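protien #1 (seq + structre)
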Amino acid sequence: MVAFACVPVARAVPTPDQDPFYAAPADVGEYPAGAMLRTRSIALYGLPLPVSAWQVQYRTNDGNGWPIPGMATVLVPNWPWFGPGQRPLLSYQIAEDSLGARCAPSYALRGGWDLGAANTYIDTLFIAEALRRGWAVVASDHEGPDSRFLDGAESGRTVLDGIRAARELAPDGVGPASPIGAWGYSGGAFATLWAAQLQPEYAPDIQFAGITSGGVPADWPAMARGVDGTAQAGLAMLVLGAIAKNEPDSGVFELLNERGRAAVVEDAAACGPDFVVKYVNAHVDDFATVPDVFFHPYFRAATDPQELGGSAPVAPMYLYHSTTDDVIPVAGFTDLLGRYCAQGADISSVYSALPGHDATALGEAPGAMDFLADRFAGIPVAPGCHDR
């Protein structure tokens, strides 16, 4: 499946918070959503690859509707599109899963080497296959300039406006008639499906040919409890830190003990891999003044608005999840499918027998890619919900 793999090397690339290119223009609010603010050509991973690449800053909106600068990386293979019509555009959402600027996909894709951006390097495999197929790719920093993990509205809007900016850039072969798809796994699925849910109202000018997502985050308290005390316990601490950061008035921070409050401060700009390494086998109860903090009313009130399923995407979807997912319990996936299907969604769903979260990301990717290829080719789907 993989066309080529890139191994990033150390480069003198400033982090986004030290790079003037990322700074918000004073007049950002005067531009329409999705308008390009500035662009620059880059070398993907700082390497001489057969790919044209740009960073694009654009106007988008945060979760409250305030104007903010977005950042996307646009990639186009250096060979013509031989398929019918204009070159397809794939919006690929990397699982940013982090709280700091150095974790942003755009930083890693430009050649900024940081182990905190490990998810970007892992997802190179999937991006490379999309490019091999001749598709253009846009990958937005969907957590926004303040790295707001677990902010569905901001993630969705940033993705949609990143697509608008990529169309305005109009790299080789991409035009108004280019079919558009979106794909993400795990944290990338969260951003992908939020964008798909928001699209009819926020971006009616964008028509998705198809949506694919796997390892879909649903039921945040259950996810956090499921990894608590395991080798993936850092993900529970990431969720806790994100809520404390994003929702300072939620009361969640006040549920933490002295150790927990210190951890939130220390980890305020940490990347997902940092959390995983630091908190192996940790128990969140050791950081809180109340037991089972993830099911406390304050925590539930903060996370309920971030759950997927409030509305169903109108584009056909291909959703997949491991029945033995060790990070995101499959029960949440089943519940989300039920909510989408009850609202009239068109879904091909896959309950994968592959063992666990990571194996499914790799093993089920060909099916996700082929579903998108069929949608780009204009092949219709059977309406309604179907297991595959």
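ok now protien #2
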Amino acid sequence: MAIPRLLVVDDDAETRSMLTQFLRQNGFIALPCQDEASIHQQMSAGRVDLILLDVMLGDENGVEICARLRTEQEVPIILVSALSADHQRMAGYEVGADDYIAKPFNPDLLLARVRAVLQRAHRSSSLAYRRRISTLRFAGWTYLGKKDEVISPDGVQVSLSRRETGLLKVFLANPHIPLTREEIATALDVTGEGEAQPEASGRAIDVLVGRLRTKIEANPKEPRLFRTERGVGYVISVDVETGEPE
């Protein structure tokens, strides 16, 4: 249930802001970047699931940046450019771009292409990931993915409802990343359409977080694991470690 974390790389502030806001409204964590240095800064700060990379970045070239990223990263990259001739598209694919979108574009088309690339990346790694990782540990607690069980530091199984378990998995998939209530609601969406369900939005998320705290926090009134991030929403503020299947 990790919320896709995207980088929007464009040297034009208005375009960068517009795309970032559009992607956030459609269920993604979208972070603005203006150059190669800011890309590396964001990647060192946390997980990145896809980079939306403009080809023309002032003095920098997106195709060259893509080539350099490919030497060290497997993160999906979509190139965006007003240059749409066949040889220009091929130059992008040859350096490892996953897709190439020509400007101007329909925002809904961009959204469809982003989701398609993410789905391809997810399918290629999901089976290996499930075989390798089914146990998550945080602050002495253990989540057993195969059994959908939560074990306390004392070794006692704690009973969580389906929604509480879903919320816990959202937090564990996004450690140290502040999440808005809308992002949490979207991640809990069981339809897979990327839209928050009415019963999972707003005040309902606050209530759900409160219930999870009462079962896992030592002191729910002064939470240390699932903290309120003022002006944003909530964040799991401890490291999450993966383990071998049990």
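The longest strand covers residues 5-9.
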